[in-house]
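Good morning,

Attaching, inline, the backbone tokens for the sequence recovery test we're adding to the shared suite. The designed sequence is right after.
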């Protein structure tokens, strides 16, 4: 009975310590970095929760072993140091590997955006806008992370697009547009072999699908398009319209870009997602790198196509600005 009470006391004490220590750590990190409390808790504290919970019975077991008579407890407890050290070392290696993975994704996104001086920082901004939209929509943290990574890598397929097409200052002809429209497929194929990016691949593949089914590469429509891809489509279009491009030196104003999103809501964009972006704080939407050459973690855009004489120009169902600005 005494041992049961002692064990319950350990559980209660550990719980109080965990909550108090975690809360103070979250508040400190949030205050220092400006990151929302919920985000810090989800990304940092919750990630080590299972590890902390596992330490509770281990601590109780070590305490019980330490009380063994004839000095046995001392040596038996000392033996625990070896597995604890190896576990700590393995966790440290895991953290280092994850950091390297994140840095590699950022570097790859930067490399794609750096090909065009107009799109430097694009992937990072789209990823950040998409993340803000996800938090308003109360999407689970694991899905938010997937959408963030997909945002950073959504244009990685442009590695396979020739510079004379990617950097062309005038409209793309029909053949060039066909080649440009292959970049989501190329991007999905690039990330597919990476086991850690299996969830991101479909979002990269379908971020240019349209809500009415007239997008590319497969013409998927409405709710058959993954939620993350629909979010990225809106974020990508807004960022593209409000940034300078080789074919349009002057960015569109916030008001015009919002008007385009509203105009083609239900055509190109999910009508339930467009209002989410519109409701975001302007500070999130307007944030840009301070220096022109700064290359944060990022997304991309394209340019208008030349009117097809056989089709009589751009079909009326296709947005004149939003669709043309996102390739």
């Amino acid at each position: 009975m005494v041992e049961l009470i002692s064990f319950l006391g350990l559980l209660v004490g550990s719980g109080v310590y965990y909550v108090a220590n975690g809360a103070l750590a979250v508040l400190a990190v949030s205050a220092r970095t400006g990151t929302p409390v919920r985000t810090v808790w989800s990304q940092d504290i919750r990630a080590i929760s299972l590890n902390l919970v596992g330490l509770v019975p281990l601590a109780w077991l070590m305490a019980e072993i330490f009380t063994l008579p004839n000095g046995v407890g001392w040596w038996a407890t000392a033996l625990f140091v070896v597995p604890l050290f190896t576990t700590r070392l393995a966790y440290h290696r895991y953290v280092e590997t994850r950091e390297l993975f994140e840095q590699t994704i950022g570097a790859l996104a930067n490399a794609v955006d750096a090909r065009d001086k107009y799109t430097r920082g694009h992937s990072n901004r789209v990823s950040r806008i998409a993340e803000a939209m996800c938090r308003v929509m109360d999407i689970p943290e694991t899905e938010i992370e997937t959408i963030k990574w997909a945002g950073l890598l959504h244009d990685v397929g442009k590695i396979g697009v020739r510079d004379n097409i990617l950097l062309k200052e005038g409209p793309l002809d029909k053949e060039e547009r066909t080649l440009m429209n292959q970049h989501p497929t190329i991007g999905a194929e690039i990330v597919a072999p990476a086991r850690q990016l299996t969830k991101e691949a479909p979002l990269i593949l379908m971020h240019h699908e349209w809500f009415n089914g007239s997008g590319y590469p497969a013409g998927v429509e409405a709710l058959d398009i993954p939620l993350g891809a629909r979010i990225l489509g809106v974020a990508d279009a807004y960022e593209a319209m409000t940034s300078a491009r080789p074919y349009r030196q002057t960015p569109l104003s916030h008001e015009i870009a919002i008007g385009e999103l509203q105009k083609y809501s239900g055509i190109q964009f999910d009508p339930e997602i467009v209002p989410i972006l519109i409701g975001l704080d302007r500070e999130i939407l307007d944030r840009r790198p301070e220096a022109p050459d700064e290359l944060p973690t990022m997304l991309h855009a394209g340019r208008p196509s030349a009117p097809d004489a056989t089709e009589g120009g751009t079909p009326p169902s296709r947005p004149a600005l939003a669709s043309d600005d996102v390739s």
